[in-house]
Amino acid sequence: MSARHAARHFFDLLNRVVLRGESFVIERGGGPICRIVPIGPPQCTPAGLAELLRSIPKPDAGYWKDLEEIAKHQLLVMHPGDTR
């Protein structure tokens, strides 16, 4: 579909994508420039993220010790109005 046609009929185009699940390739100058497709289901759900976090290895005690040591040497950045 030409970019000009897509621009003139954009509302109808979006309705066809949402209501009918149609996909379109938009062309300019005779060549494809983009594709308009239904968004589909999310790639990562909260349950999927929780499962992923449960499946990765847990840090060992040395990791936490190193992290605490690094944190001790970080500069404290004060923001205007901060009363720390």
Q: Please, could you describe this protein's structure?
A:
With 84 residues, this protein is an alpha+beta fold. Helix content is 46%, strand content 13%. Strands 1-2 form a two-stranded antiparallel sheet. Strand 1 (24-28) and strand 2 (31-36) form a beta hairpin. It is elongated, with a radius of gyration of 25 Å.
Describe what is shown at a glance.
The chain has about 80 residues and is an alpha+beta fold. It has helices spanning about 5-10, 10-20, 45-55, 60-70; strands at about 25-30, 30-35.
| Biggest beta sheet attributes | 2 strands, antiparallel
Q: State the helical fraction.
A: 40-55%
- The backbone outline, from C-alpha atoms, is elongated
Order of neighbouring strands in the sheet with most strands = 1-2
Helical stretch count?
A: 4
Strand segment count: 2
Structural class by sheet pairing and helices: alpha+beta
| Proportion of strand residues | 5-15%
Task: Give the assembly state of these chains.
Answer: single chain
Mean of residue pLDDT values: 89
- Radius of gyration using CA atoms only: 25 Å
Which secondary structure elements does this structure contain, and how are they paired or packed?
Elements: H1 3-8, H2 10-20, E1 24-28, E2 31-36, H3 46-55, H4 61-72
Antiparallel strand pairs: 1-2
Features:
single chain, 84 residues, alpha+beta, two-stranded antiparallel sheet, 2 strands, 46% helix, 13% strand
